[in-house]
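Let us begin with a simple case.
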Amino acid sequence: LVKEWQARPLEPLYCIVWLDAMFYKVKEEGKVVSRCVYNILGINAEGRKDLLGTYISESEGANFWLGVLTNLQQRGVTDILIACIDGLKGFPEAIASIYPATEVQACIVHQIRHSIKYVASKDQKVFMADLKPVYQAVSKDEAEYNLEQLEEKWGKKYPVVIDSWRRNWDKLTTYFQYSDAIRKLIYTTNTIEGFHRQVRKVTKTKGSFTSDMALLKLIYLATQNIQKKWTQPLQNWSLTVSQLSIKFGDRLKLRL
């Protein structure tokens, strides 16, 4: 059943997909090892959620993501409009080779959490207040100006933090192209994290799993129950999808 589910055909187009990881312990050759479980959650053109796949990996990287995206392609996915990720290593390179037209948005919330780790506790409150105008700007131009202001004030003290924003800037600022409704959906991986919280309610009683398949089976069963509630489109989807169709043109044909 699990293998059938993992190989099932998918829809040709997903408007938005979120990718995020969960970590579990699995027994392997008498030892307990860490396993990373990547889930891919999509929104189809009707605005309904669909879990496209669950993949177990010991490490991430362009090769792993190439395999995942090739699997989606083989199962019928011809286009993804926007992919929302949490700084996944090698993912942007892999998606560019399989779905070159996909827009990639890195999770702003993860970037903020990552930044604050490198700021002294006595400076955190003021730094966060100065950072807010960067990600809450109305436009990308305004965000760039506010990032320059942030760098002027904090660049010498926290060069690692500013460099991280500069390095990831293109992926962090994709959402500025969109209206508020779409921005709220894509600037964070909250949607898939909500799904993960529900899965963990089922898996938390297990200290470690006897095998990768035992882990997959429990995630599969949890997902089947969670998906029963996914009967309605996302709130205000008709407005959101009409805005996406203007932006993406022929790639998203609405059925009228």
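The second case is a distinct protein. As before, the sequence precedes its structure tokens.
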Amino acid sequence: MKNLLVGLVLCTLVQWVAIPTASAQKRTELDLTQVLHSNNFKAQNRQATALTSESKKAIHLDAKPGAGIIWLNDVEFSNGEIEFDVRGKDVLQQSFPGIAFHGKDLEAYDAIYFRPFNFRADDPVRRSHSVQYISMPGYDWPKLRSEFPDKYEQPLANAPDPNGWFHVKVVVASPKVSVFVNGAEQPSLVVDKLSTRQTGSVGLWVGNNSEGDFANLTITPAAGQ
């Protein structure tokens, strides 16, 4: 009986060590330049090109009037984590890079985006508009700022270089969305989603007249999804 119990314990330990978590099994690290070269995306109101001069495998979205999204094909996201490196520029009202999720098309999605030109502004009001949540079509930033001031946009502690790369982690645990920048332990923004969408596409997002650079995109679904 003693040998049998030892055998069962050892078998259980082996199974526990050998089987990864559900999130680890589904973690997806995307080479965005490969996504571009394989045409495995859908572009809406933007063109994307590879950044060959960068040390990282990055892509560039051009600037056009209106928002634009590069949707990733074959990616359906509900809850979990989206991480990426992003770079905008310190030009007033011309830099709005971010990420869209739970998307259906250019008209219906949730998004987190940044205003790098506000990161280190002397004006504290501008600094308070550094990171933004929106939910389209009903809740764009003018409505949110007017009706819910300082709730869906916040400043960044230890604000990064507005012309440099920075790392973003968006944690979606519906309805809660939390945004972490450059590995910070405390989130820069925490909101409850305003849409009823529970799942959808993920896309690289840029706002009106904005370009943006993106790299190192990783998507990790929550355990069990």
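DSSP finds five helices and 15 strands in the chain. The domain at 25-221 is CATH 2.60.120.560 (Jelly Rolls).
Keep these points in mind for the review questions at the end of the chapter.
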